[in-house]
Amino acid sequence: MLMHSVVMVALLAAAPAPKSQPLTWKVTGTDVTFEMSSKDLRALRDGKEVFGLQSRKKDFLASVTEGVDATQDTSGWEAAQSFTVLSVVGPYVSYEDSNGGYTGGAHPYASRIYATRDVTKGKGGFNLLDVFPEKDVLKALKADGYVRKYIGDPKAFESAKTVEALLQSLQAGEDCVGFEYGLDNVKRSVAFHHVEGGKVAVRISFGYAAEVCRGNMYVVGLLLPIPASLKPALERANTRQEGFLMKDAKAVKAPSVSFEWNGAEAKKKP
């Protein structure tokens, strides 16, 4: 009887642990369902994927091999790209897109930037200035200490009535911040970090202003009044009922995926 018990314990110990199921949730008021595992985040509508991380590998490989044929020696070439999920609020997915490598030319390339997708729309469908009144975003940018370090034209900065005009009044400085080209960043390179009182902390990332600074990313944090239209989804994300905020990304084990490609020597002709 004792031996039988020992055998049973050994068998149970040897049995493989069941695979964990993806975390799923439906976005209230929409037909969007999210599936999140340690290796992927997918958004589905009517069972069809409209957003995914792993499914981007095909596009990554196509982009780095475009125009390359078997007669070309690419043995010194390499490329890598990674996507790390930062926050999910309602249908808005924010992630960091990092890529770099060398695929010919004078020098390598590298970039890091945040991106936000509204999975109910196509690429470019999300615009922070459609979610928050532009006057609130403008006011927060003007008050931000980090932004004010880069004022190039004080008069234009103070009199700016639009985000675009404000960005044009800034200079890159020694840090090489790409504010001048940053209107699209304010619109789409964002993530939702945490809720503080009646406001939400939004992170906006900017790229570099000159090639010598390639690979650098600069993040500005703003506290913005929460619009009534965003409040329900934000509350659900803040309590992790549907999605999560950037402050909780590590706790919920938000996924990150990486893709790599290495060139090869040219094939010899027969």
Outline the secondary-structure elements.
Layout: H1 2-14, E1 23-26, E2 32-36, E3 41-45, E4 48-52, H2 57-65, E5 78-89, E6 92-102, E7 109-118, H3 128-131, H4 134-143, H5 145-148, H6 154-159, H7 163-168, H8 183-188, E8 190-196, E9 199-206, E10 218-225, H9 231-238, E11 256-262
Antiparallel strand pairs: 1-2, 2-3, 3-4, 5-6, 5-11, 6-7, 8-9, 9-10
The average pLDDT value, as a whole number, equals: 91
Uncertain residue ranges: 1-13
Strand composition percent: 25-35%
Strands, count: 11
Descriptive keywords:
270 residues, alpha+beta, 4-stranded antiparallel sheet, 24% helix, flat, disordered N terminus
Describe this structure in a few short sentences:
By secondary structure, the protein is an alpha+beta fold.
Architecture overview:
- By secondary structure, the protein is of the alpha+beta class.
- It has helices spanning 2-14, 57-65, 128-131, 134-143, 145-148, 154-159, 163-168, 183-188, 231-238; strands spanning 23-26, 32-36, 41-45, 48-52, 78-89, 92-102, 109-118, 190-196, 199-206, 218-225, 256-262.
- Residues 1-13 have low confidence and may be disordered.
- 24% of the residues lie in helices and 30% in strands.
